[in-house]
Amino acid sequence: MQRIQLGASRLENLTPEALEVFLDKSWIHFGDSEHHPLSLDRYSASYIIEILTKISFKKNLQKIGKKISKLIEKGKKEVKEDYYTRTTFKNFYYQKGDNLPFEDNSIDFIYSEHFFEHLFFDEALSLMQDCHRILKPNGVIRTCVPDADLRTYAPPEPAGYPDTKLPWSHPSKHKIRWSVYSLSEALKIANLSPIPLYYCDKLGHYICNEPASQKEFYEGCTDVDMIFNFNYIMKKNSLIVDGIKLT
Question: Which CATH number fits domain 94-244: 3.40.1000, 1.10.10, 1.10.443, 3.40.50?
Answer without folding.
Answer: 3.40.50
